[in-house]
Structure formats: structure tokens, C-alpha cells
Write a structure and sequence with these properties.
The protein is mainly beta. The protein has a single domain (2-196), classed as Hemopexin (4 Propeller). It has two helices and 17 strands. Strand 6 (67-68) and strand 7 form a beta hairpin. The longest helix has 8 residues, at 2-9.
């Protein structure tokens, strides 16, 4: 639940009629109901993981408020700034590029060419971070200058997105699967290009 809340804080304000130039996808989060939500500018799509496609009726406009999954509503008092009190040890007070819950009690936050590992239970960044994004830390990840967003699909795979490409990362093997990066298109992500084009 923590990562979804974080993802929605950093969505830039934009009108539903205008899409931002630059990143193909601003943020993505996997929900506990078999859906994932992809955000771009002021719009989002709901992606059906089992059916492997965007649900009908999307994209839709979004707001910039923080959301409580269990209560199905926005938490009062949000958004809040990123600082030492709200996210202990996260060095970037001007925002992050991506966040992903790794499913093992750790979450990763990315900004530019660096990342930190966050201990969810201890509510702080692990010692020794930030570290550079490189092939030693993220084998096969082609973008050492940063990523746009990432999501743990909860099937042993995580997806990293940059511009109009993505990679599939094998969590257990700790490396990018062969044959990546691939383009984001209707063959690889059915319906998603309707959000990013």
C-alpha cells in the first residue's frame, strides 16, 4: 500500500486534453485486485493483468491526491512533501523518478542515475545508499542514466520502463530476461499505446 500512495504523489499536474512530451509513462502501480494502473500526464489506464490488456473505457482523467487502497479513498492531509520526516533517508526532496515494492520487505526508489533500497518495516533507507544504477546492481538494465517507472507484477517478474521501451526483470535470478528491451506497443502491452501516444 505504501508504494501506491507514493506513486500518486509525483504525478505532474496536466490537463486531460494535453499529454506531456518526454516520458512515455510517468508511473505504474500493481493493485491487489489483478489490475495495474499506468499514469501519463493527467490521464491513466487500468490494465487487466490476467487478460493482458487495457480495460475498456480508458484512458480517464486523474487527480493529484494520495489514495488509501483499503479504505478506497484519498487519505486526509495529502499530498505531503518528500523530506527526512516523511521518507527517512530518501535523499531527493525534489521528487523521484520511480518506485517499486520488491515484495520482500524492501522497496526501491530511483532518481536519475541513482537508486536507494528502502526498508518498509523499519521505515528508512538502508545504510550505504544511494548507489549508482549499473550492470552490477541491475544486471541487464540498459538505462544507467535513469528509468521512468517500474512495477513488480507479483509473478516473479518486474517491469522497468524508459521512454517507449521496457524490460522484464527476473527477481529471483536477479537479472533482466533475454531479448529486452522491447518496444511498448499493442503487441507487447495491448491498449497501453492509447495512453502514451
Amino acid at each position: 500500500m505504501v508504494l501506491l500512495m507514493l506513486s500518486l504523489i509525483f504525478i505532474p499536474a496536466a490537463s486531460a486534453e494535453r499529454m506531456e512530451v518526454g516520458k512515455a509513462i510517468d508511473a505504474v502501480v500493481e493493485w491487489d485486485n489483478g489490475k495495474a494502473y499506468f499514469f501519463k500526464g493527467g490521464q491513466y489506464v487500468r490494465y487487466d493483468i490476467k487478460a493482458d490488456r487495457v480495460d475498456p473505457g480508458y484512458p480517464k482523467p486523474i487527480n493529484r491526491e494520495r489514495y488509501d487502497i483499503k479504505a478506497d479513498r484519498v487519505d486526509p492531509g495529502y499530498p505531503k512533501p518528500i523530506n527526512r520526516e516523511t521518507w527517512p533517508g530518501v535523499p531527493w526532496t525534489d521528487g523521484i523518478d520511480a518506485a517499486v515494492n520488491w515484495g520482500n520487505g524492501k522497496a526501491y526508489f530511483f532518481k536519475g542515475s541513482q537508486y536507494v533500497r528502502y526498508d518498509i518495516k523499519a521505515d528508512r533507507v538502508d545504510p550505504g545508499y544511494p548507489k549508482p544504477i549499473n550492470n552490477e546492481a541491475w544486471p541487464g538494465l540498459p538505462w544507467t542514466d535513469g528509468i521512468d517507472t517500474a512495477v513488480n507484477w507479483r509473478n516473479g517478474k518486474a517491469y522497468f520502463f524508459k521512454d517507449d521501451e521496457y524490460i522484464r526483470f527476473d527477481i529471483k535470478a536477479d537479472r533482466t530476461d533475454q531479448g529486452y528491451p522491447k518496444p511498448i506497443n499493442n503487441e507487447t502491452w495491448p491498449g497501453l499505446p492509447g495512453l502514451i501516444n
